[in-house]
Amino acid sequence: MEINRLGVLAAFCVFGSTIASANDSKELELFKNFTLSVCVGSAYRDPVVLQDANNAANAYMQQGNLDLDVYEKTRTLVDTWLARQYRSKHGGSLQLMKCIDLVKSNELELLFSAQSPCNSREGWRNEEHFQEFCSPRTSTDEKKGARGSLGGIRTR
Known about the structure:
Layout: H1 2-16, H2 26-43, H3 47-63, H4 68-82, H5 95-103, H6 106-115, H7 127-134, H8 139-144
Helix pairs in contact: 2-3, 2-4, 2-5, 4-5, 4-6
């Protein structure tokens, strides 16, 4: 069980850092990382993996600026994707593959686009804050990733 746990967590770390594309805004990157965390936690019911995935999902949600209902809709989308039938040539589990495919899907992009706080400059503290979360990421930003201090929840 310990090897299984370590494998899932290692894959989560590796794939989680490569999900966002260069054109993603910080807000979209946080949303994709939230989705991957929820999906991994739902796919692997091991208590250690589930707790770590839930902690990650909560941290990404706290850093983002989306409305709560978008996150709830995402959980429903995760359940739909995990219910899909993927067939492995060797009979192994492909749960992580489903999660990665979901994060790269048009369905997730559409869900984000319809509710993105980046659709309007209204409601943001200032232009700088809007640009930080809504502009496409630069190569410097990509190296830093969406990680940041959780010293407080950001508000628009």
